[in-house]
Write a structure and sequence with these properties.
heterotrimer, A alpha+beta (about 150), B alpha/beta (about 650), C alpha+beta (about 240), B: about 650 residues, alpha/beta, Glutaredoxin, Rossmann fold, Ubiquitin-like (UB roll), 5-stranded mixed β-sheet, 4-stranded mixed β-sheet, 24 helices, 19 strands, globular, C: about 240 residues, alpha+beta, 7 strands, about 15% strand
Chain lengths: ~150, ~650, ~240
């Protein structure tokens, strides 16, 4: 589902910052949040309005994990691989998730249902290993529980 | 909220608020930090709200959602005031009983109290729980008393009195002297003396200066700053405003990582409320001092938490570090003098101003003053946030407060300082937490992440894990970090896959030296620490992997095999049913056997085999015994006594 | 400008305040190897090859000469054992990434790098020095190409890997590239050759060095008198010599 970018929507986001300096990253985050990815037209508009070279905008978008230059799936699955979760067996959870939805971390399923990301610490270490789907946290995971959790999402 | 125009007005407001508060009125406080929310504490809060409404008790009982209490292992935590009765692991179904019995009839519900796993003793008050009893919660303690979305809670506890004192009773030079004398050192990892940093910045040429709160908290396993910012944002703001006044800055930045949406939200609320009261903006409290704060979110890059990288990100450019031969206190954001400090550092400042440097310096060790908040996580019973005076021993933190290692396992090492730090083994567990002491041991204080590891943790895999993390997070600008980490990672991966060779350790050490000495920023310079410290204390594990192709902890997949012991297997079919690839053959009364060629080493059979049988074992460093012939796999039922 | 006195390789030298150790060394005729340095752009300190040892206040430290400002009384050693050991490993690391790049092989010979010891050998020919992106940004002022991504997978490219019109085939990137990786000039010229009529603007016009000049030589600048004369006059690539930005 490639979204059509309305330049006015991008302008609205930029205008919120009232010509403040240094807001490129903040604008990109807001656009990412709005469209669930960063379409090329959005980057072009940002480059024009902020008078920043296009390659510079693209560079920033390609540097940060929170920004995606390809469309993301409907549900974002984030598996925590922070040290505490790692020590409690998180790699086996990631393995199970990857096998269950047939993609590797950093990818999106063909049907655009799930995007999978490795995260380095969500700050819920007491519940490790932890997985967050669409902001909802699932803790004290064992590989056996993974599939039934994923099946809850359509 | 009326804008306060003088310290006197602030004091009057505080007195007025205190007088209005009915300290005898029951108040149910529910921990709503991100950790407890993951335990569905919001459902508990809603249940309380609904029940209170249902029973028409809106005017007789207050509810307050607070920030993180710190005892994350036992969440959701509910503390009932005024008695301070602490209930742990509260569920929505407990709510009705709590209201009717504890509040209505002053009856304590034993089943919701904390029970000491060793003595069986129950603790009624939060302060009696061993986890809390042995801490010194000077900075973090107020979290349980404050609703972070209500600035009045902070004011009632004395909030902003330090700001008032700083603005009206002290000069910037006096404040610098006070902070210097206190011995406060940066809590983000660098440990640089805060007073000296402020002094250098104050004296740097230029009229425009910046102060920054570093809330990027990238170390995996560390979440102290998040809980502080979520739970008591005003303590950080107050410290920042005092710092700004001291240095002569009128614009401040708070850089929060985007993985902390609740912290971002609560900071915005705090800023708006502080502005309404006049603690921010123009002519603060009538002092003539102007100061405003902007919030920037991070975007998922560990390296951007490095101070020069963070400043570059604030300029809207890619958050990569720059050469720091000219200090950022002289040339920082937009090349202007900038003071960057960690969240916890700023939160310590109001305490120092209010209670004085001498008091602060009386806590801690010679070189490390005050307290430190640690996130105690990993293989430990009482996972949570722990605040102790500097100089407390690791043993006290892990055992006395942390409750030791779960499931009766043996302690192996504690990792401090995040990916820049190192592991400290059992033999050194009586070492005190102190900046210099931890560095001497090959680790570092870092931001406070403390990850406990047990006998089932492989130290070579741990080193590999950290390098994998750093390789992902390296900005890639400089050769030794970008290529050096990649090459060290390749060697370590080989070792964990059984492809280690003689000479690998020496090569690792050589690459480590160059990344340490030649990298542009601290990420690269400290990248080799996890490798070097695990080599220092666990060289035998490396040698076992390389020379014997054995993983002593039974972790490295390529070096372990799962084997069902024929004399223990009771043919219950549980592992057979759970194996995701059908690698187990077996039937009722027929001993199960794992086909080593099909097995993917996922370990599920090991997990699900009932404890009373414990038939599945991990073999490493020796060949797997061949499977029994089919006839020998029949389990003969044991004849019971008395029968023929 | 304040004069600074420092010792480089045992000899006392004077430098001007604001100079870097590299500039002071160059003035004194001492060669320090560099890869990511070019006098016409801001030093980035990314290759780390110019690492030198300094003694300051009794403490020894390794720093990069291209970014470290000269300080009164410091002692600089541009070729000590520690320095050579560091440079050797840096070259090994770069050779593992780009084994076929001539300038790296040459450095390898100079620093005694024999057979490869590192495990992961790649086949890149870009050392990520960033010079191409810097000249495009700082001298041409168009920033047509830039770094993309981070860490070991970082590359230099056009956004979305498409050659945008903002690139004018000035060739400055090709000129400064130490390894020969950058071929934008050739690719862009191929694009320009497909243009017709008054669109066939001379590259100097596209650069902004002249107004209204069309190309009569099918973008084969080696045949062009104007180009030969300008090159001869400037002794440097026009983008670097002329203040176009």
């Amino acid at each position: 589902m490639v979204s059509q970018v309305d330049p006015a929507a991008i302008d609205r986001i930029i205008d919120k910052y009232q010509s403040e300096e240094g807001i490129l990253i903040q604008v990109l985050l807001d656009v990412q949040h709005e469209y669930n990815w960063l379409p090329e037209e959005a980057l072009k508009r940002i480059s024009e309005r902020l008078e920043i070279p296009f390659s510079q905008v693209y560079r920033v978008a390609s540097f940060y994990k929170a920004m995606s230059l390809t469309p993301r799936g409907k549900h974002l699955v984030r598996v925590c691989l922070g040290t505490a979760c790692h020590v409690r067996g998180a790699p086996r959870i990631l393995d199970k998730v990857e096998r269950a939805i047939n993609i590797k971390a950093g990818e999106t399923t063909q049907d655009m249902k799930f995007s999978l990301e490795r995260v380095n610490c969500l700050g819920c270490c007491a519940l490790g290993p932890v997985m967050v789907i669409d902001g909802e946290a699932y803790g004290n995971l064992v590989p056996a529980k993974v599939e039934e959790i994923l099946n809850k999402y359509d | 909220m009326v804008r306060l125009q003088s310290p006197a007005e602030l004091e009057e407001l505080r007195k007025h608020m205190l007088a209005k508060r009915d300290t005898k009125k029951p108040c149910i406080t529910i921990c709503s930090g991100t950790g407890c929310r993951a335990y569905a504490s919001e459902k508990v809060s809603t249940a309380f709200e609904e029940e209170i409404k249902k029973q028409g008790l809106d005017n007789t009982i207050d509810i307050k959602t607070t920030g993180c209490h710190g005892f994350c292992e036992k969440g959701p935590l509910v503390v009932i005031l005024p008695g301070e009765i602490c209930y742990v692991q509260v569920k929505p179904t407990d709510v009705a009983q709590i209201i009717s019995q504890t509040i209505g009839e002053s009856k304590i519900l034993d089943q919701l109290l904390y029970t000491d796993p060793v003595t069986g003793e129950k603790a009624v008050h939060e302060s009696e729980i061993p986890f809390y009893k042995n801490q010194t919660r000077l900075v973090f303690g107020n979290n349980s008393k404050i609703d972070p979305t209500n600035i009045d809670d902070y004011i009632v506890l004395g909030g902003y009195s330090a700001l008032s004192k700083a603005l009206f009773e002290m000069t910037p030079e006096e404040i610098i002297a006070e902070v210097k004398d206190s011995g406060l050192r940066g809590r983000g990892g660098g440990g640089f003396p805060t007073g000296r940093k402020w002094e250098e910045c104050r004296h740097a040429p230029g009229d425009i200066k910046y102060v920054i709160v570093n809330a990027d908290e990238g170390d995996p396993g560390a979440y102290m700053d998040r809980s502080l910012l979520e739970g008591n944002p005003h303590s950080v703001l107050e410290g920042l405003i005092i710092g700004a006044y001291t240095i002569g800055s009128h614009v401040g930045y708070i850089y929060v990582r985007e993985e902390y949406p609740l912290a971002v939200e609560n900071v915005f609320i705090a800023l708006s409320q502080a502005e309404k009261y006049g603690f921010l903006g123009t002519d603060i409290l009538g002092s003539g001092f102007d100061f405003s704060i902007k919030v920037h979110r991070g975007a998922g890059a560990f390296v951007s938490g490095e101070s020069s990288a963070l400043m570059t990100a604030l300029e809207g450019r890619v958050g990569e570090p720059r050469p720091k031969y000219i200090h950022t206190v002289i040339s920082g954001i937009w090349d202007k003098p900038s003071t960057l400090n960690n969240v916890e550092t700023w939160a310590n400042v109001p305490l120092i101003i209010n209670k004085g440097a001498a008091w602060y310096a009386s806590i801690g060790t010679e070189g490390s003053k005050g307290t430190k908040i640690f996130s105690l996580v990993g293989k430990v019973n009482n996972t949570g946030l722990v605040e102790v005076p500097m100089g407390t021993s690791l043993r006290d933190i892990i055992y006395t407060i942390g409750g030791g290692i779960p499931k009766g396992k043996k302690f192996k090492a504690v990792q401090t300082g995040g990916p820049s730090g190192g592991c400290i083994p059992e033999s050194l567990i009586d070492s005190p937490v102190d900046f210099e002491e931890l560095s001497a041991l090959g680790s570092m204080m870092g931001s406070g992440g403390m990850i406990v590891m047990d006998e089932d943790t492989c130290m070579v895999d741990t080193a590999r894990y950290f390098l994998d993390f750093l390789s992902d997070e390296s900005c890639g600008k400089c050769t030794p970090c970008r290529e050096g980490i990649d090459q060290m990672l390749a060697i370590l991966t080989n070792i964990t896959e059984g492809k280690g060779q003689d000479g690998d350790i020496e090569l690792l050490e050589e690459i480590a030296e160059v990344t340490k000495n030649a990298s542009l920023c601290a990420l690269g310079q400290t990248a080799a620490n996890p490798v070097l410290s695990t080599l220092r204390y666990f060289r035998d594990e490396y040698e076992a992997h390389i020379l014997e192709k054995r993983c002593p902890a039974g972790v490295c997949k390529a070096l372990i095999s799962y084997y069902i012991q024929p004399d223990k297997c009771q043919a219950c079919l549980i592992c057979y049913r759970n194996c995701p690839v059908g690698a187990i053959t077996g039937a009722k009364k027929q001993i199960h056997v794992i086909d080593q060629n099909t097995c993917i080493k996922c370990g599920i059979c090991f997990d699900v085999c009932p404890q009373r049988f414990s038939a599945v074992e991990k073999i490493s460093g020796r060949p797997v015994p061949p499977p029994l012939p089919l006839e020998a796999r029949v389990i003969k039922k044991k004849k019971s006594k008395g029968k023929k | 400008m304040k004069k600074i006195t420092l010792i480089i390789d045992g000899t006392e030298r004077t430098a001007q305040e604001g100079m870097t150790i590299l500039e002071a060394a160059q003035e004194a005729g001492i060669t320090i190897p560099t890869l990511c340095y070019h006098p016409s752009v801001t030093p980035s300190g990314s290759c780390r090859l110019c690492t030198v040892e300094i003694l300051k206040g009794g403490k020894s430290r390794l720093v990069t000469a291209c970014t470290y400002p000269v300080e009164e009384g410091i002692e600089v050693k541009t070729n000590s054992a520690a320095v050579r050991k560091t440079r050797k490993m840096l070259i090994e690391l770069l050779l593992a990434r780009c084994p076929s790049v001539p300038v790296l092989q040459e450095l390898g010979r100079e620093y005694g790098v024999k057979k490869p010891r590192l495990k992961k050998i790649k086949n890149e020919d870009c050392i990520l020095c960033g010079l191409c992106t810097q000249v495009c940004q700082e001298k041409m002022g168009v920033s047509a190409i830039n770094f993309v991504g981070r860490g070991v997978n970082r590359t230099v490219d056009f956004p979305f890997e498409r050659m945008w019109d903002v690139c004018v085939a000035c060739g400055a990137c090709t000129y400064v590239c130490p390894t020969g990786h950058i071929q934008n000039e050739a690719h862009k010229v191929a694009q320009l050759k497909r243009k017709l009529g008054i669109e066939r603007k001379c590259r100097y016009m596209l650069m902004g060095a002249v107004s209204n000049k069309l190309c009569p030589h099918n973008y084969e600048c080696w045949r062009c008198e104007y180009d030969q004369r300008t090159e001869y006059r400037l002794c440097e690539h026009p983008v670097l010599a002329l203040k176009l930005n």
